[in-house]
């Protein structure tokens, strides 16, 4: 006689599902994710959200923000020393600082991942030469390397993007190369090779899932570095030139007004800080979630 009880097999969550559940349980990481999505949405739609043109003189000079008794609700974040709307410039500046940082970081990740995997899966003289070359390049801070490139090519938005992109690629190559090389030396990879597995199968099914933490960490770190480097070069006058609304350039143009009109300095500074903070929150949450998912 068959039992009337029906036993249903409980579905075992995959690594990705466990990682997502762990990420959702992290309240700070979820807060950072929602803020990051909001920042990306604002960056994409900034040109349709702005109330004025970025270089248009629409109000009185140095009008305080709307919450100040002397401010006006029409200019929510006030105006700068030329009467330009601060909210408009901050929104459009997100495309030049945060948006370009995302593009540079992902472009660097693609190139660095390809070279790092290729070097990590092979052995011999080529890997040794690449290893020593990376040691030499990484001994120079990324901002200093970017300044050297900009000094040679000249200031400008396109040149700083290229300079920061070239400075970030070696970081990805070293991180991916080291992670892949360490995985290749492990026993389960050697056993899979003896069983007839090719390099593509090993990379996709065995190595890549185990180095996702490294990829995530380097990507979020690269985004933060790119944001800070773009802003720093703009602040120094080597990047975006006036009257650009890039956040670092806005800081550099308004630094002399810090006592007379502090909002012209604090608002771009807060925008830079906020963007770096939410990227780091998401990056830390992803790293913890992926490590817990693997365990």
From TrEMBL:
Q: Name one GO cellular component term.
A: plasma membrane
Q: Does the keyword Transport apply?
A: yes
Q: Where is the ABC transmembrane type-1 domain?
A: 98-283
**Pfam families given for it?**
BPD_transp_1, OppC_N
Q: Give the GO biological process terms.
A: transmembrane transport
Q: Which UniProt keywords apply?
A: Cell inner membrane, Cell membrane, Membrane, Transmembrane, Transmembrane helix, Transport
Matching entries from PROSITE patterns are given as:
ABC_TM1
Residues crossing the lipid bilayer are: 28-50, 98-121, 133-154, 160-180, 222-240, 260-282
Query: Coiled-coil region(s) at which residues?
Result: none
Q: Where in the cell is it found?
A: Cell inner membrane; Cell membrane
In the bilayer, the protein is annotated as:
Multi-pass membrane protein
Family per UniProt?
Belongs to the binding-protein-dependent transport system permease family. OppBC subfamily.
Q: What is this protein called?
A: Peptide ABC transporter permease SapC
Organism field: Photobacterium lipolyticum
């Amino acid at each position: 006689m068959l039992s009337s009880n029906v036993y249903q097999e409980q579905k075992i969550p995959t690594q990705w599902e466990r990682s997502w559940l762990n990420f959702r349980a992290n309240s700070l990481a979820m807060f950072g994710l929602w803020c990051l999505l909001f920042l990306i949405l604002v960056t994409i739609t900034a040109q349709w959200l702005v109330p004025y043109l970025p270089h248009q003189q629409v109000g009185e000079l140095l009008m305080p923000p709307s919450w100040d008794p002397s401010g006006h609700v029409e200019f929510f974040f006030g105006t700068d020393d030329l009467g330009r709307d601060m909210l408009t410039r901050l929104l459009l500046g997100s495309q030049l600082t945060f948006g370009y940082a995302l593009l540079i970081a992902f472009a660097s990740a693609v190139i660095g991942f390809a070279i790092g995997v290729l070097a990590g899966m092979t052995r011999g003289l080529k890997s040794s030469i690449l290893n020593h070359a990376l040691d030499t390049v990484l001994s120079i801070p990324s901002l200093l390397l970017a300044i050297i490139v900009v000094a040679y090519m000249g200031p400008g938005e396109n040149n700083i993007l290229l300079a920061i992109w070239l400075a970030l690629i070696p970081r990805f190559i070293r991180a991916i190369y080291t992670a892949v090389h360490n995985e290749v030396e492990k026993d389960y990879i050697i056993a899979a090779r003896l069983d007839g597995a090719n390099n593509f199968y090993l990379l996709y099914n065995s190595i890549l899932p185990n180095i996702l933490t490294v990829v995530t960490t380097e990507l979020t770190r690269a985004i933060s570095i790119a944001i800070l480097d773009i802003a720093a070069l703009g602040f120094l006058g080597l990047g975006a030139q006036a009257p650009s609304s890039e956040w670092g350039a806005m800081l550099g143009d308004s630094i002399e007004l810090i006592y007379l009109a502090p909002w012209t300095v604090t608002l771009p500074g807060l925008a830079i800080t906020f963007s770096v903070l939410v990227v780091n929150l998401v990056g830390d949450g992803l790293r913890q979630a992926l490590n817990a998912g693997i365990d």
